[in-house]
Amino acid sequence: MGRPPCCDKVGIKKGPWTPEEDIILVSYIRENGPGNWRSVPINTGLMRCSKSCRLRWTNYLRPGIKRGNFTAHEEGIIVHLQSVLGNRWAAIASYLPQRTDNDIKNYWNTHLKKKLLAANSSSSSSSISKRHAVFADDSTTVVSSGAASNKPEVTQMAIARRYPFADCPSSYASSVNNISKLLDGFMMKTTSPSPPPPPYGDAAYDVKPAVEVGNPLTSFDRMSGTGTGDGEMACYDVLHPYQQQPASSFMEHGGYDVDESKQLNQAPLLSLIEDWLFDEAAAEQVVADLMDMSDSCCFVPMMF
DNA sequence: AACCTGAACAACCGCGGTGTT
DNA sequence: AAACACCGCGGTTGTTCAGGT
Question: What residues does the Myb-like domain cover (predicted)?
Fold first, then answer.
């Protein structure tokens, strides 16, 4: 009757992942690909439940994740999509391919919600475009609390303190960065026995907008001020050796398993949303267009 | 210097939908 | 068809650290 249990709850380790565990998990997924999470702790010997393995991979270890420092553009997208979709973080994350739903959710709860409250309390207007102006008031990276964003130099100093590894804004990422050193060359040495996983989470994968699917690492705004030319992703060039492969390599190995026709349909969808985000006058028309696309496209906000 | 408070974020928990037997 | 487990999502909690007192 039914499947066997996914994992024995007894002896399951909890809490932060160690670099060693990350190495084991990344190595296993490199060999076997993501998915079939039930088998991961069994085959790797990790004392983690399958759920924890999936979460660790999806939210932290998988390639293509951009961490820290949300840009004003990203904030604008999140704010607007949240207003449209509600707290459907996975759906929102589908429009920010480099961000995880968990990241967006955390960012919303710790930054944006407060900003919105502050903005709403200081303004009687509830206009979307007005709210948007709060978040997209400049083109630079928005990094911290509303108060801090008013003093970017102070904010940067605070970040420098919190994230001594300049290109890796997470202190934990710093430790994971050490993993990358251990893994240095690991991915490249192999002959790609299995295609690299998609740059997105497994969830709702078939509804991803597939922005710049040929090179997900170039999607949206680059982080500024790293001096690498590739912004923050430089950190992940090391952390996620998948990313060292050119985009063409991804596609040669099966790409991201995104139906080509969906890609063709999804790109204009994102353009519409971007138009909507930054063109108040077009907002109503864009919403109508989105609705029109609902029959032929993947993902459409339905909560109007 | 020690303690307190709040911010930030990683990870866990519980639930619902879906797939498998 | 029913029972059960898997998977993914959203809410919540726990931990760490910086800044203030």
Answer: 9-61, 62-112
